[in-house]
Amino acid sequence: MGRGGSRAAPAAAMPPWHALPDEVWEHAFSFLPAASDRGAAAGACRSWLRAERRSRRRLSVANCYAASPQDAVERFPAVRAAEVKGKPHFADFGLVPPAWGAAAAPWVAAAADGWPLLEELSFKRMVVTDECLEMIAASFRNFQVLRLVSCEGFSTAGLAAIAAGCRNLRELDLQENEIEDCSIHWLSLFPESFTSLVTLNFSCLEGDVNINVLERLVTRCRNLKTLKLNNSIPLDKLASLLHKAPQIVELGTGRFSADYHPNLFEKLEAAFAGDGLAVSVSHLHKFHLNIETVNFQVMDLIEDHGLAVVASSCNKLQELRVFPSDPFDAAGQVSLTERGLVDVSASCPMLESVLYFCRRMTNEALIAIAKNRPNFTCFRLCIIEPHTPDYITHQPLDAGFSAIVESCKGLTRLSVSGLLTDHVFKSIGAHADRLEMLSIAFAGNSDLGLHYILSGCKSLKKLEIRDCPFGDKPLLANAAKLETMRSLWMSSCSLTLGACRQLARKMPRLSVEVMNDPERACPLDSLADETLIDKLYVYRTIAGPRSDTPACVQIV
Amino acid sequence: MAECKGGGDRSPSSSMDSSTHPVLSTTSSGCRPARRDLSIDLHLGLSLSSASSLLAPDSKSIPSKPRNQVPLDWPPIKPFLKRTLTASARRRRTLFVKVYMEGVPIGRKLDLLLLDGYDSLLAKLCHMFKTSITYADVMEYHRRVPHEKAAYVLTYEDQDGDWMMVGDVPWEYVSSLPDKREETEDCKNG
């Protein structure tokens, strides 16, 4: 209950649970894995706040500028696993200016100081330097898990420090990072006595790796379950590698297509004695799809007929991603259409996450997909040419996407594309109650579109918009909504500097960042309210304005 | 035999490959998927109406923005992924060969790398030319089917200019060495 007590009540009348020591609450809270639940508990009363924060083991900072590293360490002194995310998602596509920020160094320094028992560290879209990695290797004696996703700023020298220094490392998971190759044989720096590895993923590394060193490593790490290689390992060596390491359950070959190689899959299957080898490569011409395939990433060269095969053989498929082999090929020689997605949605009952690049779509297909798969949690459709309508009726794809949000009640992530009017945003605003992340590009016709989203979408956390005709009015009218969200990105829309100034004045707990063309780096103060801005990034923060902005980014 | 290969618009075969293995040929230029090449080659000489509709942009497609109006950071693909995809797409080698049927001046083309052995090649060619074809062990064939009508035999011209029966060289060699040659189907007396 925890109602702030009336002091008049005598001690004897207080319920006994008030007297329970913190340790009891800490134990109780250990059964609340979700951070939001723990946060809610902490808000109930002072004693719960104290008990919760002192026993919090896992901390996720979804925006590195929402709070300072010192705040985090002070508030949660017992953290063993921390995850910090930096740049906005559109940084992945080059929309965020270089040197924007998101340095991991302050976080590593604060952690080294305040969390000596830290075991896990995960950075996403942050700048991680070799010095950071060296500090990690030197500061945490029981460090076990390092996960770097879409980061940059480090090289194989940093990896060498991790390999040499982290004696108890269980996971080294490098996903899609930009890693500089210093020709250091970092893999050979794992000592001979080192055997604790469970997950090793270096698929994003562009340099060569010594196969003999790798073989010795995987042989002595008897608990190694997941191995994701880069494309420097010749495919024909894979079978012999697997023979030496039968404990591997998940294998990534670091490729989208296997160069023509006779009997590759037969050899791999023969080498692998276990069940459920999930080989993440898709052969262009032959599909050796394991019935257990849960996650399938492939290029559009698979075409509709290939996806039909996937549909009929992989009924445990949960996530599908289809990428364009030639994104700039306007003529579209590849026969991948809406048909493929319809087939997969019809036959794979567990499919809940889709990322699909294609060149044409119809409302009818989307309506069918929505009907087939109401269990979608993540639906990202990218029709490559902007403003593409339904190719049969030439109508906007409003009806199709509306069907998706109406049918998929559990949808948490959505990316829309194609020709869309404000109408679709009305549906999304009204029906997408659980939607947390929405990506919009080249869509809508007026301010109304943005207004529908910001005034609806109860659970919206991240909104990213580019090249849409949305202006100041809906932004200012829904300013309060922005504080309930993690962040908003808008680029190439119709926003003025004056609106940003107003927003910043009205909402002191929001940080309003304006980014203009780096060439035009004149101070914002001198510009008039009517000036159109190029990029806006707004996020809630308790840390106040950050001080590490480059010249082209200004906080209003 | 020679008449099939005649024709001034044949692309020059300029391979200087010093490999000692006679191999089937390709007339594509290097590693890029030559899909555009394929459609033009197949349809040259056919009735003009179908050729023109294939060479023109697909009329069903939405009139697209000229390349320079669509931003460079679209479609939304991570740079690492973009590099991997273009590398993979480029790495997909093709080994196109021209196949002529004796007596028919217009040939067909196929990508050997899309096949996994001589059997697939034969099956594909039988389908393309609507006839029965044999290779390699002709004697064997005739022993098995003594009264069968003369079938077509698959042959190729090697780098020495000799006409050879397809099928003796292991398939792995065939698909791994790019060289420029041609195949012809030939009639053999039964």
From TrEMBL, chain A:
Positions in coiled-coil regions: none
Domain Transport inhibitor response, chain residue ranges per copy: 77-123
Biological process (GO), any one: SCF-dependent proteasomal ubiquitin-dependent protein catabolic process
Pfam family, one: LRR_6
Gene Ontology CC: SCF ubiquitin ligase complex
Name of the protein described by the UniProt record: Transport inhibitor response 1-like protein
InterPro entries: COI1_F-box (IPR041567), F-box-like_dom_sf (IPR036047), Leu-rich_rpt (IPR001611), Leu-rich_rpt_Cys-con_subtyp (IPR006553), LRR_dom_sf (IPR032675), Transp_inhibit (IPR041101)
Lineage: Eukaryota, Viridiplantae, Streptophyta, Embryophyta, Tracheophyta
Domain COI1 F-box as annotated: residue spans: 20-57
From TrEMBL, chain B:
GO biological process: auxin-activated signaling pathway; regulation of DNA-templated transcription
Region of interest: Disordered: 1-32
UniProt-annotated location(s): Nucleus
Entry keyword set: Auxin signaling pathway, Nucleus, Repressor, Transcription, Transcription regulation
Subunit structure: Homodimers and heterodimers.
Family: Belongs to the Aux/IAA family.
The name this protein goes by in its record: Auxin-responsive protein
Species name: Eleusine coracana subsp. coracana
